[in-house]
Design brief:
The structure is a homodimer. By secondary structure, chain A is α/β, with parallel strands linked by helices. Chain A has one domain (27-35, 65-349): Rossmann fold (3-Layer(aba) Sandwich), CATH 3.40.50.1820. In chain A, 29% of the residues lie in helices and 21% in strands. In chain A, the strands form 4 sheets. In chain A, strands 1-4-6-5-8-9-14-15 form an 8-stranded mixed beta sheet, with helices on both faces. The first copy, chain A, has a two-stranded antiparallel sheet with strand order 2-3. A two-stranded parallel ribbon of chain A has the order 10-13. In chain A, helix 6 links the parallel strand 8 and strand 9. The longest helix of chain A has 22 residues, at 287-308. The first copy, chain A, is globular and about 70 Å long. In chain A, 56% of the residues are buried. Chains A and B meet through strand 1, strand 2, strand 3, strand 7 and helix 3 of A and strand 1, strand 2, strand 3, strand 7 and helix 3 of B.
Chain lengths: 356, 356
């Protein structure tokens, strides 16, 4: 808890006029990471300009990069936390919660970690996509309410860790932002590998659909020193060890086979996976329970495979350790401090707070 | 320069271990502002779910809001600065510069201002649009290089305030991000008015296409206590006083007529407008010079109209005060500290640093 230590130091040395909850930021900024460049044939000639009609001859298009905003606190731990959002979301996932409390961005800054917030390629501020997209405003929020396990619309699950006022739900729905090009986990993992090439060592924290991008990025770049995944959507397995496909009401889940040598790279770093509440092991007609039932089941097999091959993976089912009511967004749920405490303890137990 | 004063205080009181360039943030976070809600007819029934195919009956769609990230430094001036980007850009405009220096976000935090960075509706992290969009990856960057007055591609203007290494130009191109719905300055100004309704008094700083949204927002919400506009694209005029349309090679510019009572609201607040270098008064074949020639000329008439009706507007043509080489992005040009100093002096001269 270095940030606290620093503040204590500040107060002891007479800076009591500094609010004790101030964030002391040594450095912050943003940049694009990775991406591709397309060069159109021909030569550029501005005399072809006609009222902003396209004249691509000889022009370039930079796209498929990630946008990254970072903050490094004073006296930070050596390894920063790098946060990747999930489907339909952006780096907003880690900022203020829907009910206006602090998210993981602030919580882990206070705990002395540098934080890097990613907008993945074709999303958010990294919207410049190398492929075309058609975006339609389709009413779908009640479906997401159920898929994300807030409850059975319009009801909330008993004890769900989500504020029940209308404004919080509205802010939650407004967090969603569309793909500006088709989701491609290869494109995303390439941009994350490029980010770690630039910043050096760090700890990757993924959410949901970002899970598969995180495993692939960790195979591509060994600057990723650990991975913490919140409810990952899919997993990598060694060729020949791919589990049977798992059907569910929300689709059939099939793991991803990679070469054994690539898979073994994931056995060299500590891995932790967290799943929230209201996921059942048996088949039901609940969209949320069904969508995550198979992803949790395949996660158990992924952890077994990692450990069977000499790795260090842990899967935490929050209700099984007495933490109840979490939705698909534990990082912004009402108990997100308790969720952060679990991650902090894991980071400390694995020596990642001091690791360089 | 309160941030500096605070740091001096910190150091004097014995906290010399704090880096003197640390940012001391009292509060930071993000939220959605404004927007609309569409409610599809019918009643929601999750049994209609079929492999994520749309089933909008009875579902909602929240869209057309702004995403806002804010930071309040310790001991801040009463009025924060609220930053709105221009066409094809996002809040990235105010973050790190293409060559990796600090942008207006950090510069004005250091000067003791709270900062609010907007992604306007249908852009960046506020991508959820109430109207459909088709996004195509069209090579157009050499055109923007010229429109944004970096030079005549591939040449740089003599003395242009833009770093000449390839990486900086690549980062600049990657700042662009597309509309996820058609640009609608009414939608944007509504979200900005909603933002100021939420946060109270503040100073709006706009760029380029954001200019017209800023004038309209200041008409809609008197919590906007001043407007600083960098190279605004268009202007409001009182009915009956609309200047003649101004043709140029990049299109014909026509001001926007509003009721006299609405226009007079802009005469109650201080306004400053800045234009950079390499804009000529005569017609040329340069895309950049032509695109901004008419917007500068109409800006002169806007300032005359504001002041003729008892207002307080100033237009600063940077080369005419000896500041040379600025592109369309003075806030991130190589001399952006000098550009920020000009804004700071204006804010101080107008009493806006202490105004509540």
């Amino acid at each position: 808890m270095r940030a606290v230590a620093v503040l204590a130091g500040v107060i002891l040395c007479g800076c009591a006029h500094l609010p004790k909850d101030a964030l002391i930021i040594k450095e912050q900024g943003s940049f694009a990471a990775g991406g591709v460049v397309a060069q159109h044939s021909g030569s550029y000639d501005s005399s072809k300009f006609d009222n902003f009609k396209p004249y691509p001859e000889g022009q370039t298009f930079h796209g498929d990069h990630a946008h990254v905003f970072y903050q490094i606190p004073f006296n930070a731990h050596p390894l920063p936390l790098v946060f990747l959002h999930g489907a339909g979301q952006s780096s907003k996932t880690w900022e203020s919660t829907p009910d206006g409390r602090e998210g993981f961005q602030n919580i882990f800054l206070r705990r002395g970690f540098g934080v890097y917030l990613i907008d993945q390629p074709r999303r958010g501020k990294a919207g410049r996509s190398a492929v075309a997209a058609n975006i339609e405003p389709i009413a779908d929020e009640q479906m997401w309410y159920e898929i994300f396990r807030i409850g059975k619309y319009p009801d909330y699950f008993d004890g769900v860790q989500f504020a029940r006022d209308e404004e919080s739900l509205e802010q939650f729905f407004r967090q969603m932002t569309p793909n500006t090009g088709g989701f491609d986990d290869e494109v995303v993992s390439e941009s994350i590998a490029a980010l770690f090439e630039k910043i050096g060592g760090g700890i990757l924290v993924t959410h949901s659909q970002g899970g598969i991008c995180g495993w692939s990025a960790a195979v591509k770049n060994q600057n990723i020193k650990a991975v913490a995944a919140y409810e990952p959507g899919n997993y990598l397995f060694p060729e020949g060890e791919l589990p049977e496909a798992m059907p569910s009401r929300t689709g059939t889940l099939t793991g991803r086979a990679v070469s054994k040598s690539d898979f073994l790279k994931l056995t060299k770093i500590p891995i932790v996976i967290y799943f929230g509440d209201n996921i059942k092991d048996e088949v039901t007609d609940e969209l949320g329970a069904e969508n995550w039932r198979v992803r949790l089941a395949l996660g158990r097999l992924f952890v077994e495979a990692i450990n069977r091959h000499g790795g260090d993976a842990t899967l935490v089912e929050l209700p099984k350790i007495g933490v109840y009511g979490n939705t698909h967004f534990p990082m912004s749920d009402l108990n997100n401090i308790e969720i952060a405490d679990l991650l902090s303890k894991w980071l400390k137990d694995k020596g990642l707070e001091e690791k360089k």
